[in-house]
Design brief:
Layout: E1 3-11, H1 15-22, H2 28-31, E2 35-40, E3 51-58, E4 61-73, E5 77-82, E6 89-98, E7 104-113, H3 118-121, H4 123-147
Antiparallel strand pairs: 1-7, 2-3, 3-4, 4-5, 5-6, 6-7
Length: about 150
């Protein structure tokens, strides 16, 4: 069973500012509740081919995984993939101007993958947990950036 979870929020900050903050892996522990640390495996800044290792907690387990940036359109879209472990995943961020003045940002966060082995049996529970976590993470990002206005 495939897992495909899409969440979104509107942030009262311009696309450029939201994208610059959210696309910088150094900020991930600030707005992702489950990410404990980030370590660059290639030199910053973010670019296609960049590799970043994340250490996180999910469903009571500690996970370390490495994402590779596969698409990067500054201010518009970032796609990163990992092929490690029982649950290879692709994460996509998109940013687009929102509102009449375009001074707000509609951000989407999508995680999708196809778990194998035991993880495949737990896919429905994983999708539900991912949806809850992503909603909380985007709310946290929104609160952080809205305060900076």
């Amino acid at each position: 069973m495939k897992v495909d979870v899409l969440t979104e929020t509107v942030i009262a900050v311009s696309c450029d500012r939201v994208a610059a903050y959210a696309a910088d892996p150094a900020h991930a522990p600030e707005w992702y509740a489950n990410i404990d640390s980030v370590a660059w495996q290639t030199p910053p800044p973010v670019a296609i081919g960049s590799r970043i290792a994340f250490t996180a907690r999910f469903l009571g387990r500690r996970l370390t995984y490495t994402y590779e940036i596969t698409v990067y359109e500054p201010g518009r879209r970032l796609v990163m993939r990992t092929s490690e472990g029982p649950f290879p995943m692709e994460t996509t961020y998109t940013w687009e101007p929102h509102g009449e003045a375009g001074d707000r940002t509609r951000m989407t966060l999508r995680n999708r993958g196809e778990p194998s082995g035991f993880a495949a049996l737990a896919a429905p529970a994983m999708a539900s947990a991912m949806r809850r976590a992503q909603s909380k993470d985007l709310a946290r990002l929104k609160a952080l950036l809205d305060r900076q206005v």
